[in-house]
Protein 1
Amino acid sequence: MSTGVLHLQCRAYPLHHRTPTTSLDAFTVPGHGELQPVLGSLRSLAYNPDITVELDMTGMIRPAVALPGVEVVACHARVLAAGTILVVYALRHEQDLRALDLLELDALDADINRVLRETDAPILSAVLSAAVNSGLLRSIALRPDLAVAGPSSPIDRRSARYNAHFVGQDPPWQPDSRVPAVSSGPDCRILLPYTYAWDRDPDTALAELLTMTEPTDIAVAQQSLLAGALIAGRWVLGDLAHAHPANTGVHAFRRFLDGLWADFHHLDSYRVESSQAHRASYLAARQTIGLDDTQERADKLLGYVSSSLLAAASERAEALDTRLNRVAAALTVVSAASFGLDIAVFVLPQVSLWTKIAVVVGLLGMATSGLAAAMLPGALRRSFQRRDATEAPAGPNGPNGPAPVSTVVAAAGAGVAAAGAAAAAVGAAAVEAVTAPTALPATAVGPTGTVGTVEGGGGAAPGAAGDASGVPQQPGQSSGS
């Protein structure tokens, strides 16, 4: 099957991985067979060539792809040192692509890419998982929305961008009028953004053709990295906007951004490391696909995300400080109650059981009221205040409706505090009664729960404790009356 045009598609997947090149053992992909990694390089670089790992996946992909009138000549994966994987398809068509105009050619390319992406998704995911398990790919930093799913996350398909290359001698297509006038490298003609025609023999060895298209494929790899950054930034902002900061792992996001920018600038060094001819194609491709504009937008978005994450961290720190202050206040109340109990034991070394119970109840009441005041969450009070503001002016319980929730809570808090104060007063009354000059005091408890002391003759000692209101009783009046 040959019509004089070889159709190449190159997809870039950002993974932000680290690939050791010391061990390139074959690994098995469950259900698909075995792959043998081969060491390669970016041969379009003039200085400091980058090492790549080449995987021939033709035997896995070809049986799975069903495209009428299209033959899958080859399918290779190129693992770049800059944290990106290039998946390259070489296709031949039964129909004569030269007879198509540019828009028809672009539509055909888009349809084929859509079918290939749907078909090879499970295979690429299986290959990626097997490569990670074998140790070929290490330290993968996924986008935050993918990292939530854990190690079973699928390959990053949303960030992937691809180039279309049509290789043939004297290609008939002319650049679209919307493409800016740029000076591309030799044999390269930019038809549309991400679409290129190459004046080269289509029967040339695939390795040489991949070297020829490397400049434009490096540019699309950078674009895919920035696309992943934009998607991640939007996801984090959406999470923060809906008050779900717990889902946003700040450290995982920082690792992702660190890997992203390291890989991006690694690829960006292509502009100074490549040979002159390939550099011209790279710079022309950058300008045509708007790479610099995408980088500027990513910088602005990620800067805003960083500010939002910092504000969210400050909010969480403030909330934590508030909780710690409440805990400290509660501990202070408990310590004060313990100190009061120690004083009571020192002042009342020999008292009756009921007096001890009264002192303990008073201290417990004071501690309970203090704890209730200290531990009532401020956020809950603010929620009640907002509910009060929207309360209806009239309701079934009266002209002003039912009492606002915050009023009820405030009343309950006041009741607790009053109970604690009353209990504390009882304890103080007991202390005063016991320390007063009495003869053979005996404890008496009245029906109201008031504790006092009575003499054997039935009269109250001078200065005996009154009721819970603190009003002293008259001599001869029993505290239980």
Note: Residues 287 and 293 are 9 Å apart (CA to CA).
Protein 2
Amino acid sequence: MTSKIIDFIVLDEEQNPLLNVEGFPTLVQAPIGKDIGQLVSMGKISHIEQFAQLASDIEQHEWAGAYLEYLRLVKWIEAKNSNLPDPVANADGTVTYPEPMPPLREPIRPKIRTVEQVLEPFAKALAKLKGIEFKGVNVALTETNQNGLSALKSALDLANEFGAEAQFFPINFNAETSSSIEVVTLDDETEFKEFGLQFILARKAFFE
């Protein structure tokens, strides 16, 4: 019966299950993962695919643990049922038979989830964090970046009002990404408008 969890148990040199004194195999160490939702909420998504794979692996390992416990209980129940007390004759002539313990339901193995399936509930938040790519930088679609662009637009309008637009560019925009702050250098007004338009259209999609 241990063949169902062969991928999760410790094997000896001959690739046979390494059994303990009770005759049961030992599970390999469970993977150590992190809460996907917490990582996303904190914006720490640089290795999110790896943690998604670990989450899927942990689900399978938890099933293997439940199945191993099921095997232990099955053996225990079989031992109990094989040593039931004798039937008891009652004064009224009836006989009371000891009730055997009912069989257990075998734990059903969950389907193996892909990385995409694990991350699907967080797809919108991840897309917002990954944002748009501009000049090699993945600019997150955050309110901080939106406020930064608005401030830059106001400064540009003021520069144009006083005829100082030639002195305004190039200008560095400190863009918030999913992992840090990176600099996007905007060389001229056309590039600034292109960047701003891409950002606003992408962010607008999250509120439609």
Note: The CA atoms of residues 30 and 61 lie 6 Å apart.
Protein 3
Amino acid sequence: MSNPAEKPEVVQLPAEPVSAPSASSRRAAAQRVREARDKLTSTSGTRPAFDAEMLRQYAQTRLSASYVVMLLVVATGMLFGLWMQPIPAAAWTAGMLCIHSAMIRSCRRFLTEPASPSATRAWRTRFVMLDLLYGLCWMAILIHPVLDMVTETLMMFLMLLVIAVSSMLAANLPIAAVAATAPVAVAMALSFVMTGSLDNYILAALALAAEGYFVLLAHRLHSSTFATLEARAEKDALIGELEQAKAISDEARHRAEAANVAKSRFLAQMSHELRTPLNAILGFSEVMKSEIFGAHAVPVYKEYSADIHNSGVHLLNLINEILDLSRIEAGRYELNEEAVSLVGIVADCHHLMKLRASSRGITIHEVFEQAMPRLWADERAIRQVVLNLLSNAIKFTPQGGEIWLKAGWTASGGQYLSVKDTGSGIPEDEIPVVLASFGQGSNSIKSAEQGAGLGLPIAKNLIDLHGGTFTLKSKLRIGTEVIVTFPPERVMSALAPLSDDSPPLQPESSVLPDEKRRPRHKPIMSAGTGS
């Protein structure tokens, strides 16, 4: 009988971590989406805000050059009045001035009205139609049959002048520039071609080439203006983002300051509220543990009293550590500096922690340099640093391990303290964690003697207040070493002994010879019974 086919084992591969996009990539993606949306809603393929700005610059350019255009129209009408009858020339001049005035009035109305996408499209169409009418009027006068007596050179010059002025004025609206110049150039080219001579063919080609050149120039000017608007928009957007980020950071700073003040008030109040009953717990548990008023009826009550007292002491130390850390973080921790002996403080702390280390079978070695001068430091702070480092070393060193306490000179002339153990060590990626407030490494979490995670942060901050350095080195299954250094400015050099021929503390008073021979007056009252 055949065995049924075994089902293949399906192994689920771990999903690859998806990296969060950076702020710059998110900003670029949002900008691309915004540009695509704006192009879909725009008639010119650009952002609607840019369309309105281009029309605004077009209207301002037209208004600023209105007198120049009027002068050009009047001068052309007067010039053509020499070859044709004055009435047609005056009529053409009046018609051109009417078109120009309508264009100026439209530009002023556009500048006064609020911008909107629908209004922008309507004004764009209106401006293009006015420019087309403007170009047709110029075409009508340049190809008038009466002007056949005028030389081709003069006509070419007038055509180039009209195309150049119209292209420059309508550069912010390229389609309007084409509408104003194309009828003139095409009509002049056809006029030259219809004569049938080679020279006129060349002039026709030059007219079309000039039209292409000025249209390209207007497009270049439009592109340059558009790039300027884009740069300004990006600058405004960046300024807006910076202002928004600044507002967010200011708000976050205000919240952090308010939270810090609230934390300080809470800690100050809670320390008082906790210390008051805690003192009673410690006092009465000490009385019960010591059996001052008599032995307990049940012997186990003495052990319970000792446990209550030890727990109260631990809670009091924890409260003190939290208060010290809050004062350090708030910048209100004041150092009570005096001349202290680093070696003496380390030796005293070793004596205090020796019994605890011996109960765990841990040997503590001392390596001190002799005749070291005193430090100008806060004795309570230095003692707290040494006790925190030594208690951590004892806590995480297994039974039978060793701890080395070293104190000596640094290469720069300062003094250092080193606490090295043979414990389990700290992973390299967890060193910043254990140095942070309430931070605990994986070994501390697994340990039976868990702390609050305040010993190392408090020690580091206290050393920073002294201007020293705090270095933690650790390797797994090898051990941990903490090196604390004090700057040379805090080392008090020993004073040189006084020489034998040193000057007196007070100079001797110079006494004249007559004063030496002058008898001294007796005191009014003398102590004793003698005269």
Note: Strands lie at 337-340, 363-368, 375-378, 402-409, 415-421, 469-475, 479-486.
Protein 4
Amino acid sequence: MDPRPLNTPLMDLRPWESPELTSWRRLPMHAVDRGAGALSLDDDHWRFQLLPAPEVPPSENWRQLKVPGAWTTQDTGDLPQYTNWRMPWPDIPPHSPTANPTGVHERDVDIPADWAGRRVILHVGAATSVLIAEVNGRAVGIGKDSHLASEFDITDAVRTGEANTVRLTVVKWSDASHIEDQDHWWHGGITRPVLLYATDPLHLADVKVSAPADGRLCVEVQVRHAGGTLPAGWRVSGHLDGFGVLTPDEEYAAWCVQEDRVSDFLGEARLLATVPDVRRWSAETPELYGLDIRLHRPDGSVADTSRHRVGFRTVEIVGNDLLVNGERVFIRGVNRHDFHPLTGRTVTPEEMRADLETIKRFGFNAVRTSHYPNDPALLDLADELGLYLVDEADIECHDHAHEIADDPRYLGAFVDRVSRMVLRDKNHACVIVWSLGNESDYGANHDAAAGWLRRYDPTRPLQYEGAAKTGWSGADIASDILCPMYASLDEITAHAASGEQNKPLILCEYSHAMGNSNGTLADHWAAIETTPGLQGGFIWEFWDHGILQRLATGRPAGPFASGAYAHGVAADGYRWAYGGDFGDVPNDGAFCADGLVFPDRTPKPAMYEHREIAAPVRLTRSDPGRPPRVTNAQHFRDVSWLTAEWRLSVEDGGTRTAPAVLPDLPPGASADLPLPHGLLAELPAAGAAGGGEAWLTLQVTTRHDEPWAPRGTEVCAPQIQVRERPAPAPPTSVSVVASVVAASVAVSAHSPDVDAEGLLRHPLLTCPPALSLWRAPTDNDLLGGAADHWRALGLDRLVREPVSVDRADGRVRVRSAYPTGAGPVEHQQVFRLLNDDGLLIEETAVLPEGLTDAARVGTVFETVAGLNHLQWYGQGPWETYPDRRTGGPVGHHRARVDSLFTPYLRPQESGGRSGVRRFALLSDTGTGLGVRLDAPRQVSVTRYRAADLATASHHDELTPRPRCVVHLDAAHRGLGTASCGPDTLPRYRLGPGTYRWSWVLRPL
């Protein structure tokens, strides 16, 4: 243990308040592979102590800490804090608060004896936010940038063959924090791997690979020597798997001599190859070639090597189109943070693979590394699995945006962060666009970084959302792509039709996934796929950033609490924490719970919506007399990697399957897909037993194991309707709704059991059917203003006022009024018993003119206890809503009632199913109740009343009721994305007027 204080001269510099100081003695970033032979320092045996400020000297009180790992998740007393864009303290840039947690990490390491005479490098993968490195009490360097590695040459500080002490001091708050003001948790610590490696004094300093789609490979190599001067006679060689030895570029070498570009301390060489019949890389066909680069000493022996994987592909912009290998590709993207519910932002390669496999399985082909360079392992995986990346620099000065964007003190930091990202990631085929950062206004510092980037890498476009602040059609230095965030559908389509568009439009953020959200996603993609100039976007975002919290202590569960969650739900004694749950002030609450997956990577229902929207195989049928038409919607791949099966679902029948043989379809092609003989011919006649409407689904799965999915994984399930529900018969004298009651069923002469107040008494119901106009507000409802509107109208606290109860001819007509802030809502229910023990209920609700934008119009009732199973014919099996229903095929579905509810981190309206025609609620023995609806309706069955959900902030506050709470909605408001972005479209909103619906309730 080294009891000495932090290196005094370095501390006198106050590097945590010096934006001009981006590093000290840090080595240049490079793309040389240093994994082989490296000595990992990752384990849970680091000595650690947390100081209240960087000026405070360490004490003798040490504890153990896991590295990599944020100390804020390891019970150190300093807890995570969540803010969206506000800085956690009021000090203006570049200052930091006086109370500034500072973690001292220390451990001993034995340096191998055979490293003597070699160059020894300390690599720290990432540290938040200022890293001060010492070895054996000697300062070896300083680094900033919480999401890129710092490397230091420690050769002169180490003793080979014996133990050495490495001390890494991390200052949490700094001038750099002001440009790392991203929308995620604030942590402190070392969050990526720490390692040591050794090289020969003569070593590869960098390798830059250019591999366009035409197969002309160019490798630029830089060479240095630890002693400074390069020895005469060194050379480099290369070998490409499947091709052979690369050729030295003698013409380039001669040009260097001619232009006096030969240096005695920086060696430069080029290697060339032209690969015939090159296999091109794309997100659909991620073809990679292995490349070995060797550095030879003057005697020919190998001094250094670097292994790379090369993808041949070309990215360019032509007009308003972004092209990959000459093809205009749709960007079906998602924003992704490095996140884990136990460690904060430390993620293993295995966990990153699981992230990207999930992303691929749900139809995404692109990731924006919001809002910083992700862990290097993620780029390796994106190359391998096939994902386009927008690689984003670690720059966001959201709270002080315009001040910092033009502040010359931060000029070096902007250029440093962009350039180091590019230097690290330049050889990855997956990177198709560079990003200068996020939400930092637009200033001279951006232009400076863009200038460096354009000079160094002219092979890729760059983007920056803030560059369009003066207009979408203006010329600017900092963005080749128009990449707005949360623009409305009307805005983007109007711009594409304006004649003023001058670059591709790809939304850097859209369809904010907070809670029950992502409404109108299908509407967006219907426009994108049919509007020239629109090319896609990146949904915000992949993760719900819920940190697992122990309820007993109120602290993070920590890195060793695996197994304390499953299927999106925290185990008893835990909960998913969001802003404010750790006592953090200021905070932005549940705004961090805005992902497409729960904190344990369980997909939310919106993922299935996207999967179907992005389906590689499309199915249409415009002529009932012809076979369905199938289209390959991919850009580069045929459909031979897929297999399919027909699934025919009949409302009053069952589900039948038959094999489907996909035709040989190149990208973009269409063909007829004949149906198996007799599949539709066997359909019973409409109205006959087993008749009713019918839907044909093409279930498409992987034919073989894919790198991102095993054989048999469902890829999409396009569906067409092959028979509509029979049209209602003409009304009879008793006005029975034929679409609800079979023609053979007559109205009983007996009267239903309705009390004097007009309330139905039924042995299967514990709360009678009542009018419902409100839902437990979603996050979109709360932040978008709809919830306030409903409260102002009193929709959350409706009181029924009986008006009349009329009994005649076995029919009971009940009229009621529900006062609201816009006037009374008139509600009528007509009850009739049927001879088959069913009860027909016909309902009408009249919303007054002032009652605009209601949450729902429908019926709510509660059943007896013990009904644990739901079977239904409609959309499913997962949750769907009127403006998010493309991913729910119509069919016969079944589920346990307890599984129907979706556990969004903040309880809210959830669990609905769209297009339900009929359902049955059953006990474990098969008894229960059945409901048949007059038309496809929105239905939800859960254990919670809307008020239960609305008054809870976390799921540990909810107690499931033994009964089922059932909503039958004649109409239900869409979800939209108003928590951050546009609300739902007008056609998914509910206005004043008359609503009619009917249903039959019968015991089973």
Note: The two ends are 74 Å apart (CA to CA).
